[in-house]
Design brief:
There is one protein chain. This protein is α/β, with parallel strands linked by helices and 250 residues long. The chain has one domain: NAD(P)-binding Rossmann-like Domain (Rossmann fold, 3-Layer(aba) Sandwich), CATH 3.40.50. Helix content is 44%, strand content 14%. Strands 3-2-1-4-5-6-7 form a seven-stranded parallel beta sheet, with helices on both faces. It is globular, with a radius of gyration of 17 Å. This is SDR family oxidoreductase. GO terms for molecular function: oxidoreductase activity. It comes from Streptomyces alkaliterrae. Belongs to the short-chain dehydrogenases/reductases (SDR) family.
């Protein structure tokens, strides 16, 4: 049966890999992102998919998505919250903002807006449209949220998704809707690090795994796809690790 699958951050990286995986099932896709040209490029590879450009850090952006779905679609079967990213890259293309506490406040606010608020606003806008029973809500977390590695502000922004997901699982469980977080480790081909990742650091990240390789967007996409399936219908309120064992340490 064809499902309606909404994927934020669906134009690039893991979000796009997830879109391709769901498209292989013939599902109806609605991609959400901030950059229209990125969405257009994604749609060129996903015939039949739809897209809406919206800034999900604002209530107006989330409402824009909800209004489109209200007019064009029925229930939302799967919601994948993959929007977010490295706040440091956002600042890399902007003028210097100075130092001190102002820089700290900016860094933390930016990362929470990108990684927490985007997911919360879109989910709250759409939770009354979720298929009941059978709906699936998925959040893209991070290994850093569980062990404090990398940018503290980014890690905290991802960690904030955990209590929200747990509370949502409690609220929506009686209606037959599951809620889970997928926590990737180092994943190549996502643009997360921009051009800043040295070969030495890359080797360190790979060496942390038990599998001896970097993750791929498809690894995470397959996990998201499985959690959205009927087979995973009794799994909810979980943080699912997709990091080749790196979370456990060497």
């Amino acid at each position: 049966m064809t499902r309606t699958v909404v994927i934020s951050g669906g134009g690039t990286g893991i979000g796009f890999a997830a879109a391709r995986r769901f498209a292989a099932d013939g599902d109806q896709l609605v991609l959400v992102g901030r950059r229209p040209h990125v969405l257009e490029e994604a749609l060129a590879e996903l015939p039949g998919a739809a897209a809406v450009a919206a800034d999900l850090t604002t209530p107006e952006g989330a409402e824009r998505v909800e209004n489109l779905l209200k007019v064009e679609y029925g229930a939302v079967d799967v919601l994948v919250n993959a929007a977010g990213g490295n706040g440091g890259l956002e600042d890399a293309v902007r003028p210097e903002r100075g130092g001190g506490l102002g820089a700290v406040a900016h860094d933390w606010t930016l990362n929470f807006r990108l990684n927490t608020l985007t997911a919360v606003l879109l989910t709250e806008a759409l939770n009354h449209r979720l298929a009941c029973p059978g709906g699936r809500v998925l959040f893209l977390g991070s290994i850093s949220a569980l062990r404090g590695s990398g940018s503290c502000a980014y890690a905290a922004g991802k960690a904030a998704l955990h209590p929200y997901a747990f509370d949502l699982a409690r609220r929506l469980g009686p209606h037959g809707v599951t809620v889970n977080v997928v926590a990737p480790g180092y994943v190549e081909d996502t643009g997360f690090f921009g051009d800043s990742l040295s070969e030495e650091r890359r080797r360190e990240l790979v060496d942390e795994t038990f599998t001896g390789r970097a993750g791929a967007p498809g690894d995470v996409a397959e996990t998201l796809h499985w959690l959205a399936s009927h087979a995973a219908g009794h799994i909810t309120g979980q943080i699912v690790q997709v990091n080749g064992g790196a979370f456990l340490g060497r």
